[in-house]
Amino acid sequence: MFKFFRKKPQELPWITEGKTVWGLHESRNNKELKAWLISDGKTLGDPKALPWCGDYTETAIKKALPNEPFTGNLGKNPYWARNWLEFGVPTNPVYGAVIVFSRGSGGHVGFVVGEDSSCYYVLGGNQGNTVNIVRIDKDRFLGCRWPSTYPNPNRKLPKMSAGSIPKSTNEF
Predict the structure, then answer these.
(1) What is the DSSP letter of 157?
(2) pTM for this prediction
(3) For residue 139, what pLDDT is reported?
(4) pLDDT band for position 142 (50/70/90)?
(5) Residues 87, 57: contact at Cβ < 8 Å?
(6) DSSP category for residue 117
(7) Cα separations (Å) of 109 from 2, 55, 77, 153, 161?
(8) Considering only CA atoms, which of 58, 138, 78, 126 is closest in space to residue 102?
(9) Residue 169: per-residue pLDDT
(10) Cβ–Cβ under 8 Å, residues 98 and 57
C-alpha cells in the first residue's frame, strides 16, 4: 500500500564504475577502453588481442574498492576468469556479485544483475567484444563471490525477460 515510501537501494560502487564504460567496443573504442582498463594501475593489454573479461572485472572492483585484497591465484592473475572463484567470500547469486562461468577449459567473469528461469544476466566486458549485459545459461555457472571489504546486502536478483538482450554462448 505504501510502496512509494520505500527508498530505492543505492547502486553498488563497482556496478556504477563498470557502467561508466557501457557500450565501449574493443575495436571501435579501443583507445578509450584501453585507457579505462589501465586506470587502476595495471592491465592485461590490448582488448582487441586478448580476452578481457577479467580485466574489466578487476578494473571496476579496484577503482570502486581500492582496499579490496586480491590474494592467491587471483592476485597473481586476475585476468583468468576462473581465478575469480578465489575472490572475496562465497555468496549465492545476488545482485552485483562477481559471477564465474565455464567456457570449455577456460571461463568467463562479470557481475550478475538479473535472472530468468534458465539464464543469469551479466554485466561484463568482452561480451560480443563490448561492455554490455548478456544472458548466460545457468548450467555454465561455477560460483559467485562477494567483496570482503563491502557488506553484502543480499539483494535478490531481479526477474528479467530477454527482450533484446542477447544470449551468449562463447565470450571470446
Answers:
(1) P
(2) 0.94
(3) 97
(4) very high
(5) no
(6) S
(7) 38, 10, 13, 21, 21
(8) 138
(9) 81
(10) yes
User: Would you place residue 166 in the very low, low, confident or very high pLDDT band (cuts 50, 70, 90)?
Assistant: confident
Q: Using one digit for the tens of pLDDT, what is the confidence trace for 75-127?
A: 999 999 999 999 999 999 999 999 999 998 899 999 999 999 999 999 999 99
Provide DSSP, 57-95. Answer: HHHHHHHH-TT----HHHHH-TTSGGGGGGSSEEE-S-T
How many Å separate Cα 49 from the centre of its chain? Answer: 20
Cross-strand partners of 122: 112, 134
pLDDT digits (tens, 9 = 90+) for 38-72: 999 999 999 999 999 999 999 999 999 999 999 99
> In the structure grid, which three cell numbers stand for residue 53, read together?
573479461
CA distances from 150 to 11, 55, 61, 80 (A): 13, 20, 11, 23
Q: Which phi and psi angles does 17 have, rounded to 5°?
A: -65, -45
Buried b (16+ CB within 10 A) or exposed e, 91-124: bebbbbbbbbbbbeeebbbbbbbbbbeebbbbbb
Q: Are 122 and 112 in contact (CB under 8 A)?
A: yes
